[in-house]
């Protein structure tokens, strides 16, 4: 249970869902963790639940340069270094066809999902320990299209360009950069998608998704966290520039 002993991790989108599950697993394996999110109430509740001096939080909008600089400086102030960066924050927007998609929601998705990942790499990686690990949360939507999710799909495809470029640019420091691509996971994001698809019966939408997953179920956030843990640990020290799919077989169905 010490795969991350003496490591310091930054996790964006850390207040709930995959970010929270990953933070818990990181702590269990000996890391110190800075949780970053825009929702202070969720961060406070998560920190209270963890109840450890090895976890701290910073309220930040990842789409803003100054907020990004702030969470980097607060991490260094609290824990002295950064070894792991889980570049995880993201939003889904609404399920709406391209021809009807609201421009303001498109802009916000690009700001959080794409610019947020870009800014995170730009400001975190220069302060990282050589030999560190960056993990970017993309999606199966970063590898294929989905009707009604055009901006989200575009942002998740764009994250791969950042990941692959960063993997090349920071290889001389042995910093590895990889992306994870979950299918549907039991998180608030999927509840939002299900409600958009079927407002009167979201459960029906969930069952529809499950029929196209060979394992016929959603993932639990901890299952995604376990993959992130591997990529964060020294066990993955020769893996960089890769797309790690974790979708119960959805992409090949």
Short description:
This protein is α/β, with parallel strands linked by helices and 253 residues long.
Descriptive overview:
Belongs to the short-chain dehydrogenases/reductases (SDR) family. By secondary structure, the protein is α/β, with parallel strands linked by helices. Helix content is 44%, strand content 17%. It is built from eight helices and seven strands. The protein has a seven-stranded parallel beta sheet with strand order 3-2-1-4-5-6-7, with helices on both faces. The longest helix is centred in the middle third of the chain and has 22 residues, at 103-124. It is globular and about 50 Å long. The termini are far apart.
Name a few traits of the molecule:
globular; 253 residues; 2 domains; seven-stranded parallel beta sheet
In total, the number of domains comes to: 2
Query: How many β-strands, per DSSP?
Result: 7
Question: Using only CA atoms, what is the Rg?
Answer: 17 Å
Question: What is the overall number of helices?
Answer: 8
Classify the fold: give the CATH topology of the largest domain.
Rossmann fold
What is the distance, rounded to the nearest whole angstrom, between the alpha carbons of the first and last residues?
35 Å
The succession of helices and strands, N to C, reads EHEHEHEHEHEHHHE
Largest beta sheet: strand ordering:
3-2-1-4-5-6-7
Family: Belongs to the short-chain dehydrogenases/reductases (SDR) family.
Pfam families: adh_short_C2 (PF13561)
EC number: 1.1.1.-
Keywords: Oxidoreductase
């Amino acid at each position: 249970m010490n795969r991350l002993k003496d490591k310091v991790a930054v996790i964006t989108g850390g207040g709930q869902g995959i970010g929270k599950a990953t933070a818990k697993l990181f702590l269990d394996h000996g890391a110190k963790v800075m949780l970053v999110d825009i929702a202070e109430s969720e961060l406070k509740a998560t920190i209270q639940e963890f109840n450890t001096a090895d976890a701290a939080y910073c309220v930040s909008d990842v789409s803003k340069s100054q907020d990004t600089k702030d969470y980097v400086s607060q991490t260094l102030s609290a824990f002295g270094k950064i070894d792991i960066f889980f570049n995880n924050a993201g939003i889904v927007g609404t399920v709406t066809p391209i021809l009807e998609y609201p421009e303001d929601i498109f802009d916000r998705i690009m700001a959080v999902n794409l610019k947020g990942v870009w800014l995170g790499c730009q400001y975190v990686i220069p302060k990282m320990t050589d030999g560190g690990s960056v993990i970017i949360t993309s999606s199966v939507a970063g590898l294929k299209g989905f009707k009604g999710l055009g901006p989200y799909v575009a942002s998740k495809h764009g994250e791969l360009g950042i990941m692959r470029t960063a993997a090349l640019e920071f290889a001389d420091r042995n910093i590895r950069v990889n992306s994870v691509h979950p299918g549907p996971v039991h998180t608030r994001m999927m509840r939002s998608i299900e409600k958009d698809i079927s407002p009167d019966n979201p459960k029906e939408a969930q069952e529809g998704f499950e029929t196209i997953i060979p394992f016929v179920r959603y993932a639990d956030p901890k299952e995604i966290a376990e993959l992130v843990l591997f990529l964060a640990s020294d066990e993955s020290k020769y893996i960089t520039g890769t797309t790690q799919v974790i979708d119960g077989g959805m992409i090949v169905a």
